[in-house]
Write a structure and sequence with these properties.
DNA binding, DNA-binding, transcription, alpha+beta, Regulatory protein ArsR
């Protein structure tokens, strides 16, 4: 019983971390490989501090890994999250699977 509650809590934490559209966009960007906070901020046209905050939430939920390389912190999807390297749009959250379509429209696209 305790284990089930723990797994439910872990699942809820991951889903909560993905509940913000900007975080889903970050996960989508990281499908292509590791990136720095600055790269992500530039690609998403967001402030560094905001991206850093969202990456921290994704990191603490176990969805991304980070590695310091020189002066920069590089973020990538957690290895256990990607179901198949050849199919990087499906993610294993442990309790469920998430699929981000490869041709997902960007926000504001008509």
């Amino acid at each position: 019983m305790v284990r089930d509650r723990f797994q439910a809590n872990q699942c809820a934490e991951k889903l909560k971390a993905l509940s913000e559209p900007i975080r889903l966009r970050i996960v989508d960007l990281l499908r292509d490989g590791s990136r720095t906070v600055g790269e992500i901020a530039g690609l998403l046209d967001q402030e560094l501090v905001n991206i850093s905050h969202h990456l921290g939430i994704l990191y603490h939920a176990g969805l991304v890994e980070r590695e310091k390389q020189g002066r920069y912190m590089h973020y990538r999807l957690h290895a256990a999250l990607v179901l198949d390297e050849n199919n990087s749009h499906q993610f294993n959250l442990g309790c469920c699977r998430l699929e981000i379509p490869e041709d997902a429209p960007s926000e504001g696209a008509s």
